[in-house]
Write a structure and sequence with these properties.
The complex is a heterodimer of chains A (448) and B (320). Chain A is an alpha/beta fold. Helices cover 31% and strands 22% of the residues of chain A. In chain A, helix 7 runs parallel beside helix 8. Classes of the chains: A alpha/beta (448), B alpha/beta (320).
Chain lengths: 448, 320
């Protein structure tokens, strides 16, 4: 696990961030003060960091009282490299990440070629080093070629830096393969990530099953397709004792199943993505393909259940589920359209809606975006502590603006949030103490 | 970029006819009145023949059809329009780009009206956003088939003198049927009580929220209805996937005299065609001169399509 991506060495100039509201979910701290960064690591935190005791050669930044938090750790993105560089590359994806306050992200193995061998994992690690922005990790495929049959060399891939194993956008349908995968993963205590959807029940479906699908004449995916797969897997988790993570939970029934599994003491975690607590199936309206997702947007009661499960802590993390698609993949009839949205640049402002509405505290929300995913992935970042990597994001919590896809750094613009009024803006992003993004405040104000 | 302004008229204040769902009862009524007028007009009426002279109507069918395409072609010709028929093979439209590419190519030839059928729900809406002329939906996936619902309504109105207060049963493959959806929208808007009758595997989730009563027993569902509308069951859905066999389907959901006897004594029988005799309808019932209005439906189809072409091109003629 030693070959995790590292940003290249640079003459390390000390960095002093002053006059900040430091919010650290891992330590449960929310206090005013400053941060001193030496050699890419956090060296001192709190009121004792002042302009007066800053090292003379240090770069000093006044944070203006804004929130300084750990950089976001996004545990589910697709960067399309290698294979589909016309939709996104590791470079454009990390630009988008740094603009969104994301300092670490984990990409799915559904590239071309598929990341199911050591070379694939090493390729991502090398490209991540070259890119010098957000830290980029990957999951390995769980089965060779994502075919759901034969296991990959999980131990070797993990040694090269794969943070977990998943068949990306599809569930492992064969229950015996899944049983062996979980049992073998237990050997090295590896994380297995599942796309929870019973594939035969969802076959051919384009949106949530129900009245709206009937009216639009679109084939529906029943909500229970999600919980069925989770409950099947939970029996195997109980048998194997493996670490099992459920991706993008979207239904109340799935939340219930995971809540019970956690109470039972199974090693189960899960995440959701912003669309599942901020949008419902009505977003599809007149066949808007930007609202086609996998899993599909659900009804309003499920949306509420997801928001509540974040507040309650049943849902551990919020991930962007960033899925860039070119125009041609979306300007087609709904049933033919590719599923997914770009999410890196809306992850924070849309998640902050939960805080602004008062349904979660800031500390709790940031925990879902930073320390909790880092903990599940086994990464040292995602917290503000002495000796931790200086991956930080400076946020103007209250600044209102509108999502503007034209300004996205991502190569693809497939977002259902275009024009949405949101509150909260990333001002600066730091990776290992280097600023990788700075908001052009005046240009931004001019545009809005 | 067509030269004429494309402001919809008060007669029919929509640029396209994409479905029944967005229409008001008054607009439906006006279309039916106009269609009724065309139904009574001689085929060679010279005023009608002059109406669309010099205008171009394109039939663009991404899904095979002979009846609907011919009906639209005749309707356009009886109004004096130039008509082209284009069938796009399914293989060449597998990639969605081709749909919009095709739309833009055809649009460059500046048709005044495009009549479009496509196998995917919503595809005609998508295409309509990219073209300058009017678009008539000739059936999109499982979504809508508005001219079929209009011709069904006109057939009923001419036979029974009204729509308001009638009781209609729509029977068969509701799940996959655009005809059922358009008819449900139209009939419920016009004050008709609608029942749907189907085996549970061929019902669509939440269909009752569209204002219909749901029956899975044909004998109960047909009780006292004024109209029985049968739907076609696609062959590939009969053998085990949705129903176990043709024999079992016909036994429980095929229309024969025995089940029909539960409807009102003179209840009319309708079918959008093409029929599967012995699957959803008994041959004798289909051919019953007193009860079956299936041939009349086809005849009204041309009149309804003339009315739709007329209504959507009024803005081009500056009239109202």
């Amino acid at each position: 696990m030693s070959a995790a991506p590292k940003t290249p060495k640079k003459p390390a100039r000390p960095l002093v961030l002053l006059n900040a509201r430091i919010v650290d979910p891992a330590g449960n701290h929310d206090e005013r003060g400053g941060i001193l960064v030496l050699d890419e690591k956090i060296a001192a935190i709190g009121p004792e960091v002042t302009r007066d005791n800053a090292p003379t050669e240090a770069e000093v930044i006044d944070c203006g009282g804004n929130v300084l938090a750990p950089g976001l750790v996004d545990m589910r993105v697709q960067l399309r490299e290698p294979g589909d560089e016309h939709q996104e590359t590791i470079d454009t994806g990390s630009l988008a990440a740094s603009a969104g306050g994301v300092t670490s992200m984990v990409c799915l193995p559904n590239t071309n070629p598929i990341i199911d061998d050591v070379a694939g994992v090493e390729y991502i690690a090398r490209r991540a080093r070259e890119t010098k922005r957000a830290k980029i990790y990957c999951y390995g495929a769980l089965t060779q070629g994502l075919e759901g049959k034969d296991l990959v060399e999980m131990g070797l891939l993990a040694e090269c830096g794969a943070l977990g194993f998943t068949d990306a956008l599809q569930a492992v349908a064969d229950v015996m393969v899944m049983r062996r995968a979980l049992t073998y993963a237990r050997n090295f205590d590896l994380l297995i990530v599942q796309h929870p959807e019973e594939p035969r029940l969802a076959a051919g479906g384009a949106m949530n099953n129900g009245e709206l699908a009937t009216r639009l004449g679109l084939p529906g995916i029943p909500a229970c397709a999600e919980v069925m797969m989770i409950e099947r897997d939970l029996h195997l988790v109980r048998m194997s004792g493996a670490r099992y993570h459920v991706a993008h939970v979207s239904t109340a029934a799935a939340v219930e199943a995971i809540r019970r599994a956690k109470q039972e003491g199974l090693r189960v975690t899960c995440d959701t993505a912003p669309p599942y607590f901020s949008l419902n199936e009505n977003e599809i309206g007149d066949y808007r393909t930007f609202a086609r997702l996998s899993p599909p947007l659900r009804g309003e009661s499920d949306r509420r259940a997801i928001a509540a499960a974040i507040a309650e802590g049943v849902i551990d993390c919020i991930a962007s589920d960033h899925a860039p698609h070119d125009v041609e993949s979306k300007r087609v009839p709904f049933v033919q359209a590719a599923a997914g949205i770009v999410g890196l640049e809306t992850l924070l402002p849309v998640s902050l809606e939960l805080y602004h509405k008062g349904s979660v505290s800031l500390l709790h929300l940031l925990k879902c975006l930073t320390s909790r995913p880092a903990e599940i992935l086994g990464l040292p970042q995602g917290r503000i502590a002495k000796g931790a990597p200086a991956d930080l994001v400076l946020i103007d919590l209250d600044r209102p603006h509108r999502v503007d896809v034209a300004g996205f750094r991502s190569k693809s613009k497939n977002s259902p949030y275009d024009g949405r009024p949101v509150q909260g803006m990333v001002l600066r992003t730091f990776v290992d103490g280097r600023q990788v993004f700075g908001q052009q405040v005046f240009a931004q104000q001019g545009r809005n | 970029m067509s030269a004429e302004p494309r402001t919809p008229t008060a007669f029919f204040p929509h640029k396209h006819l994409l479905g029944i769902e967005g229409l008001s009862p008054a607009e439906i009524e006006r279309l039916l009145d106009l269609a009724n007028h065309y139904a009574d007009l001689p085929k060679d009426d010279t005023t009608a023949r002059a109406l669309l002279r010099g205008r171009t109507v394109m039939n663009v069918f991404f899904e095979a059809s002979t009846r609907t395409q011919t009906s639209f072609e005749l309707a356009a010709k009886r109004l004096g329009a130039d008509v082209t028929n284009m069938s796009v093979s399914t293989s060449s439209i597998k990639k969605g780009e081709t749909l919009l590419d095709t739309a833009m190519t055809l649009n460059a030839m500046r048709p005044d009206v495009m009549v479009v059928r496509h196998g995917d729900s919503g595809a005609v809406n998508l295409l309509s956003q990219k073209v300058d002329g009017a678009v008539i939906n000739a059936g999109d996936g499982r979504h809508e088939h508005p001219t079929q619902a209009l011709l069904d309504a006109l057939t009923i109105r001419r036979r029974l003198g009204r729509l308001q207060g009638l009781l209609v049963a729509i029977c068969g493959d509701i799940l996959h049927s655009r005809v059922a959806r358009s008819n449900i929208h139209l009939l419920t808007k016009m004050g008709v009580r609608v029942r749907v009758i189907a085996p549970t595997t061929l019902l669509s989730s939440g269909i009752e929220r569209m204002g219909v009563e749901v029956f899975t027993d044909m004998r109960k569902g047909l009780k006292d209805v004024d109209i029985v509308m049968m739907l076609r069951l696609q062959l590939e859905r009969m053998q085990g996937a949705y129903v176990p066999s043709i024999r079992e389907y016909f036994h429980f959901f095929g229309l024969d005299y025995d089940k029909l006897s539960l409807a009102k004594p003179n209840a009319l029988i309708m079918h959008p065609g093409p029929m599967n005799r012995g699957v959803e309808i008994d041959s004798e019932v289909a051919d019953d001169i007193n009860r079956s209005v299936i041939r009349e439906q086809v005849e009204m189809g041309v009149a309804v399509r003339m009315a739709c072409l007329d209504a959507l091109t009024r803005n081009l003629r500056g009239g109202n």
